[in-house]
Amino acid sequence: MPQVVLVYPQIPPNTGNIARTCAATGTELHLVAPLGFEISDRYLKRAGLDYWPYVKLHHHESLEAFEAAHQQRGGRRLGFTVRGEFNYANFQFQADDWLLFGSETAGLPAKILSDCDATLYIPMLQPHVRSLNLSVSAAISLFEAHRQLGYLT
Question: Closest Cα to residue 103, out of 34, 20, 3, 22?
């Protein structure tokens, strides 16, 4: 099953909302430090409501720690960015994909993007809109992956 990875997230409610989506779909959630908040942050907990016991949460103290976990388990790293190469809706997801999202303020760092197996974007019709909310982007992408893989039955 695809996994969601948040690299350097900054806004607790976004991470909480993504955690809630991961709980609802049985998706593992990886948080890569440094985080812009404490895991015990009340806004993080509030956004995740009472679903935290159902979140398969992995906290990586550094990018290197995350990379070691990824190496051990395998699978493609798919970086989501407004400058991605592939439209997420036309991309063929695989069960062992890792969906990587960057911080709300900076996105994924160039080094991480260059190490990804593919970069994806979510199309937006209005050119003056720079990006979607992080939790919306993660949900859209995760549900498309689940749809393609037949997990939504």
Answer: 34
